[in-house]
Amino acid sequence: MAKSTVERSSARLKTVLDVLAEGTWSEKSLNAGEILAEAIVRVPLDERESELLSGGIPRGHKSLTTDTAKLVKAGWLVKGRSGWTITEDGLRATVAFAKPDEFAAALAEGTPVPADTPLPTAPVKKAPAKKAAAKKPAAKAAAAVKEPAAKAAAAVKEVLKKAAAPKAAAAEKLEQPSAVAIAGDFSTLLGAPEDWAPQYDEVQMKFNSRRKVWTLSTTLPAGFYTYKIALNRSWDENYGAFGVRDGANHELKHDGGKITFTYDHATHDIVTA
After folding, report:
1. CA neighbor of 202 nearest in space, from 225, 176, 181
2. Is 78 helix (H, G, I), strand (E, B) or coil?
3. Does the residue 164 lie in any domain?
4. Is 129 contained in some domain?
5. Residue of 73, 88, 93, 264 with fewest CB within 10 Å of its CB?
6. Number of domains in the chain
7. Could you list the residue range(s) of the whole structural domain that residue 58 is in?
8. Among candidates 110, 116, 71, which has minimal Cα distance to 96?
9. Residue 2 has what DSSP assignment?
10. If you average pLDDT over residues 247-256, what whole number do you get?
11. What is the pLDDT of residue 248?
């Protein structure tokens, strides 16, 4: 029986943690885009999920990006400037909730990982199997099955590459917006009358003409926040995760204290420090 969209989404989200867990046993480091692309390779998008939204991002990819906020809230994933990191609790979660349905239920219900859950062990390397000439047709068939998934992953990686590609050469000539706002669920903490409203002065960033970037420094209490960049005091042009127009929300897990947001209009992306 074919899996439903909800089941595929849950399995794909679990795969994000699985990929990160596997990375702890290898020397290969993947960035956020590669982790998401690998999850989509292992749990392919269906026809509807493959539909491209504004900015050229597949519907399913955007949903997955948004859903990873659940992993952060559960304390299983940390998103930092240097990349994504799976926590020790996240590693144990891959063992405690090994089946996708168990994983989805635990995430939805906020089920804590049992304290006695062991950390996953490193996979045992198997000796390479002897090649069998009689099985060449089967190998070709397997390759044919994997080809669409590989193409899908390549397409996602290409979209992410283009979305986040630096445009330093054109930075000097780039026309800057008249205003850049950081609008999210912490706008009222900045003094604005309401959250998610880019028209207020309190959420406007300042332009650094030397560095050609926009910044806003403030102090926030510890917590998990989401936000987007909105230009010219409206939502007509806005940018989310990976600098994608109309993309998924940026996410921030803050320990509390001072923080500086920096927006680069050349890449449409943002970094925090």
Report:
1. 181
2. strand
3. no
4. no
5. 88
6. 2
7. 5-109
8. 116
9. P
10. 86
11. 83
The answer to the question of residue 78 being in a domain is: yes
pLDDT category, 131, cuts 50, 70, 90? low
Do 253 and 220 form a contact (C-beta atoms < 8 A)?
A: no
- Separation between Cα atoms, residue 140 and residue 134, nearest integer Å: 12
Residues 34-46: what's their mean pLDDT? Answer: 88
Mean pLDDT over 198-223 rounds to 92
Q: Is residue 91 part of a domain?
A: yes
CATH number, domain with residue 237? 2.60.40.10
The amino acid sitting at 137 is P
Q: Specify whether the CB–CB gap between 100 and 107 falls below 8 A.
A: no
204 DSSP assignment: B
Scanning the structure block, which residue is given the tokens 């912490």? Answer: 186
Q: Kindly provide the residue ranges of all beta strands, DSSP E only, lying in 140-264, ordered along the sequence.
A: 180-184, 206-208, 213-220, 223-231, 238-239, 250-254, 257-264
pLDDT, tens only, 172-188:
578 999 999 999 999 99
pLDDT score recorded for residue 126 = 47
Q: Are 157 and 33 in contact (CB under 8 A)?
A: yes
Residue 213 pLDDT > 60: yes
Supply the DSSP symbol for 114: P
